[in-house]
Amino acid sequence: MQYKPRPGIVQAKICGLHVLIPSRVTYDHCKSIIRLPSLWAITYDLIQKGESDETIIRLHQVLTKKSEDEIRQRIERFCENLVEQGFMIREKDEGRL
Amino acid sequence: MIRQQIQLLQYVFSCQLRHKETAEYFQIPEPKSNAAPVAEISVLQRDWDELRTQGFADSAHTEYSVLTPYFSEALVPHECVIIHAAALRWRDRAYLICAESGVGKSTQAHWLQKLRPGAFSVICGDRPILEFRQAAESKGGGSAPNSLGSDSSSIRRASTKRTDVVYVHPSPWNGKENWHGADAAPLAGLILLNRGEENRIVSLSEREAALPLYPQFIHTGWNPEMIRQIADLETRLLNTASIWRLTTHDVPASTRLLLETVFH
């Protein structure tokens, strides 16, 4: 996976909602708590644990019945969206952060 | 640096203070009390450095204010936490008005007291302490008993077996108006306040309140495990109280709406 969670982002649950909460070390990049739908919270967690792309894609295929190509695109959009909000980083940019 | 014992609720803390005058803002344990401190507290240098870059004076008042998140985190293991809210007492129950600074918590508190003289008193004007107490467990599979007596119209029943009662306590942090004086009371309701183009009040579910409420819990932000524990406390809090969102365009019209909906 070419993306990874930014160090210092905390995954938690509030009232059953999956949330990402920035800790103080990340405040230069993101300050607001956000909610993730369940499938994407699991996806985020699997990325954080270093699971392979194939494992993550297989999970999405089972749950959504979408094609591999479509799933790859959705995951990339998800990750890019979180990069924009400061919750994830691109691995190729890691040394510059 | 001086070392000073400070008491919040029944807990004594051993604090490293830069200014001895800071202690004057707090309750000092009785000399004959031999309660052992439950935690040591000192403000991290990096927090002082950040305050300096923001233009805050290195003073007793700044220290009194910056200690809030440290005390809050020290209270969390004891199932207590400090929240940014105006805490009012009405009919022996506590109500929190939560909002970012400058939105109008104090204004609403002022108008509530003005429109219903004698009905409201202020527990804490700025940062009350919440204490989570577990009430008796329910028997069998039914919903939990209402542990707060017969006045249940604005009290939400918890659906889990373990029922919390959240007590709202005074604290040393009462805001610029220095409103305080009322005794602690069990929490019945929480009003999330924001500004808008019209006066409006709606009931919120726990899930709808979860994200806007989280930033009002006070903590340093440095400790991931503390963040998770506070998220758990927020879940417990939202399971015990009725919740509304009040959008205010102008006062006292929005306050009258609040009175008609919540305090009737």
Give a short overview.
The complex is a heterodimer of chains A (97) and B (264). Chain A has 97 residues and is of the alpha+beta class.
Task: Describe, in plain words, how this protein is organized in 3D.
The complex is a heterodimer of chains A (97) and B (264). Chain A has 97 residues and is α+β, with helices and mostly antiparallel strands. Chain A contains three helices and five strands, in the order ββββαααβ. Chain A has helices spanning 38-48, 53-64, 68-85, and strands at residues 3-5, 9-14, 17-22, 34-36, 88-90. Chain A is globular and about 40 Å long. In chain A, 24% of the residues are buried. With 264 residues, chain B is of the alpha+beta class. Chain B contains seven helices and twelve strands. Chain B has helices at 45-53, 60-66, 68-75, 105-115, 206-213, 224-238, 253-261; strands at residues 2-8, 11-17, 39-42, 80-82, 86-90, 93-98, 120-124, 129-134, 164-169, 185-195, 200-203, 242-248. In chain B, strands 4, 5, 6, 7, 8, 9, 10, 11 and 12 form a nine-stranded mixed sheet that branches. A three-stranded mixed sheet of chain B has the order 1-2-3, covered by helices on one side. The longest helix of chain B has 15 residues, at 224-238. Chain B is globular, with a radius of gyration of 19 Å. The N and C termini of chain B lie far apart (51 Å). At the A-B interface, β2 and β3 of A face α5 and α6 of B.
